[in-house]
Each structure stands twice: as structure tokens, then as C-alpha cells.
């Protein structure tokens, strides 16, 4: 594959759009050239409405202006809930036959006509016992891809590649931790994305339709707070049992349990498909990763090792960026992964 030119990684979140530009991405320690973040207008993500796309393009222009980023060449991520991924093995299939076989098999798993998706696959190894190539099949609706192509054009940017959030995050986590086997949990506003790295390759991904906003809404419903006050209580007390007589914990823990149930199901599905054991190291990403008590809650409930992502590890950071980097840690993982994409 051709090497990508120097570019900016752009991650579209429900609450914010983030951009990261790195230099020397193939070096052991890339250098942060620039970064930026702007609030996302409500309801514009994945919208086919032209006005919403123009609003999101305006946010990108504002991000570039405010941060001083000059490079117009970009790589963007599609929201995980928009994408279909599936790990597959093909016993006895030769390399030259793989493309046709993947296309045939994909029809059984993708819940929409293949004519309406952009289909690709990534070879991720070989199962010698089964004589089977292993691949990750990725399918994205063409209409979603077209939305982001249009947003880039409206913003005056040159979009050279699009990939999924989980692929980008996997790249960032592997570079920052050196761990080849990980379960990654990305806590967003509307969903929690779970993905698995095995031997450095993304082999599983799913989007759980419960996110940080569900926690805020639960506090609003219970205590009749306004949104801002509910957010403050969530961010201050999280899922820590022994504060405020456990009142916030008792509201938030059932929602977290619902997420954990789906994580367990995902792990069991992965194990049944691959006949491999699941990683026991879990890394937390996204804005919601910093929720007080979250790391301990997941570690205790699942009996696994849990740590909060530090995607800036092994990246050289100038003093002027230190404050932003310290505050925004795990929320920049996808943008960093996009910035690290080299082909």
C-alpha cells in the first residue's frame, strides 16, 4: 500500500470534534505538532441534511483557525455504530481466492445490500491448525462515507483516508502501551464501543447503545436536577460507593451493570468464534473514561486488569500543549490513532 502524506487525524464525537497533527509518525517517538477541539453542534453527526453538514464543516474551519493547524490533508474516522465488522476464518482458501470468498461470506453477515456498502477486509494472520487465513471484514454504508467526504469538501480539506474508530484506537493503544492483547472500552456520549486486540490486530468490535449521557439522564430523572448540575454530580462522584451515602452510586451502577452485561456477551461471542482466550487487560478510552470509580468498578465486576488510556505515551509534547494533554488524555485516542496512520 502507498504511504500516506503528512496529515491531520480528525475524530468526530457527539460532544466534540478533535484534531491531532504529528510529525515523524514512523519514528519511535513522534512529535505533536498541533491539536485542537471544538464543540459539536447537537444532532449533526451522520446527518444527511445539507445544513447539518455545513454546520459541521464550519466547526472544522473554526477548529483549524483556533488551533493554527495549517495542514489541509486529513484522515477521518467513521463513528463505530455506523460500521459493521466481523472476524472470519476461511479454511482451505488460497490467498488469490480470498477476495471473492470474503465477498460471498459477507452477504450472510451484513444487514443491508452489499451494493449499499463499501466493503473491505484486513488480513490479520493465519490459523495453521485449520489451514485458514484470518481476516477482519469491515463494511461501511456508502451514504455515511459520502457524508464525511462532503463535509471535508465543504471545509476545504483534502480527505485521503477514512477508517473506523476502533482501528484507529487500536493503533494508538498498541503504540502507547506496547501491549498486543487488549480489550478496549471507549466511553462516548451515546454509546460504549468495545473492541479487542489480539496479537496487535483488531479482531472484534461492537457498539453498545449506552453511553455517558445515559448516566447524566438517570441523575436528572432521580433528583430532578437540570442537565448542568447532573453533569457536575456525575463527574464529581461517578460510581464511587462511599460518597453522598451512595446515592449517586445507586443511580449509576445499574446502568454500568447493563454495559458490563453487553461486554460479557461480546467476550463470550469472541471466544466462541475464535476458540481463543480473551485478553485480561482492559484499557478505558473516551471522555467518559475519567468517571470517578469507573476503573475500579470494571476491575471488580469483571475480575480483570483495568487502566485508563494514556495515548500520548511515547509522543514528544512541547510545553505549550502539556495542560491540554493532561486534561484531555483518553479522549484523544482516536484522533492520535488517525494521525499515526501511515498507509
What does this protein look like?
With about 350 residues, the protein is of the alpha/beta class. The protein contains ten helices and 13 strands. It has a five-stranded mixed beta sheet with strand order 3-2-1-4-8. Strands 11-10-9-12-13 form a five-stranded mixed beta sheet, with helices on both faces. It is globular, with a radius of gyration of 20 Å. The N and C termini lie close together (about 5 Å). About 40% of the residues are buried. The model has no long low-confidence stretch (mean pLDDT about 95).
Overall structural class, as computed from helix and strand content, comes to alpha/beta
What spatial form do the alpha-carbon principal axes imply?
globular
Number of strands: 13
Strand % is 25-35%
Largest sheet: 5 strands, mixed
Radius of gyration: 20 Å
Helix-strand blueprint:
Blueprint: E1 8-12, E2 16-23, E3 31-39, H1 50-67, E4 73-78, E5 84-89, H2 98-109, E6 117-127, E7 132-141, H3 142-154, E8 158-164, H4 165-177, E9 182-187, E10 192-198, E11 201-208, H5 212-223, H6 227-237, H7 247-274, E12 281-285, H8 294-302, E13 305-308, H9 322-328, H10 333-339
